[in-house]
Amino acid sequence: MVALALVTSLLWGLADFGGGLLSRRTPALTVMVVSQSLATVTLGTIVVATGAWSEAGPRLWCAVAAGLIGPGAVLCYYRALARGPMGVVSPLVATAVAVPITVALVLGERPQPLQYAGIGIAVIGVLLAGGPQLRGAALQRRTVALALVAAAGFGAVLVLIVQSATTVRGLLLALFVQRLCSVAVGGGALFAAARRGAPVLPEGGRRALAGTLPALAFVGVADLAGNATYALAASIGPVTIAAVLASLDPLICALAARGVLRERLRLVQAAGAGLAMTGTLLLASG
Question: Where are its TM segments located (predicted)?
């Protein structure tokens, strides 16, 4: 379970980094829709090949709900980033982990005392790894509200993914349905943006977009695979622990920026990384 949850954080962190990098030249909504569309086609092929259609049942409504909530959460996240500094917005959105933890505790999960300590330390580490701006970061209430709505949305998606299936083939179908709904909602928003005259293509037009398709496919598939490994981790072990370990993606994103873009880690991010790893060790040893 620990290994699956850590793989989830790696996949989500790389997807976040890749999506953020691509969004510097291509509108973020286009990046989301195209990357998710490519992932949906890939997963659809797997669903047909494995006969996962036979797993259809009432639980799929959880996947539909996740697919409808996800794009709204992403949109709130992007709008919050546009209004306020990333060093404040990102840690606020990272509080999404509180949703699955709270639900799991309400449903009766009771981690060991050492694991409670690990959860607290790891969550603080994740918040600090986002590079919070501790000074000069005055925000409008609307920006804070958008970030918290995004966090609630992402947290709800984590809960719904776990509830959407009980078998591996059922999970494949649920993730396909989720992505199909997300693409439909995102595609509608993209069409509306184009009708308003907003830019939906990068500089260079369709040819430039075609050149980024491999990278977009990686982002979409990595995010999708992260959802799958998280659902498997949460089904094997305590959700409280799986959710915390899977939420280390801001740290992965920061390390990727350090390695690829040569961005220097701030002192607070380095401290957050240390706390996150300490919390991970406590959770794994509990």
Answer: 33-53, 60-80, 86-107, 114-131, 143-162, 171-194, 230-255
pLDDT cut 70: percent of the chain above it: 90
pTM: 0.84
The 10s digit of each residue's pLDDT in 160-201 is 988 888 888 999 999 999 999 999 999 999 999 899 988 888
pLDDT band of residue 37 (cuts 50, 70, 90) is very high
Closest CA to 253 of 272, 231, 279, 234: 272
Matching residue, tokens 């030249």: 25
User: Residue-wise over 220-246: b if at least 16 C-beta within 10 A, else e?
Assistant: bbbbbbbbbbbbbbbbebbbbbbbbbb
Q: Measured between alpha carbons, how far is 72 from 186 in angstroms, rounded to an integer? A: 9
Closest CA to 281 of 99, 119, 126: 119
State residue 72's pLDDT score. Answer: 86
Rg of the chain, C-alpha, whole Å: 18
63, 164 contact by CB (below 8 A): yes
CA distances from 170 to 11, 126, 166, 216 (A): 21, 31, 6, 26
Sign of CA dihedral 238, 94, 144, 17: negative
- Model confidence over 200-253: pLDDT tens digits? 888 888 898 999 999 999 999 998 999 999 999 988 878 888 888 888 877 787
How long, in residues, is the chain?
286
Q: What are the structure tokens assigned to 131, written together?
A: 């590079």
Return the half-sphere exposure (C-beta side, CA atoms, 13 A cut-off) of residue 33.
18
CA distance 95 to 157: 13
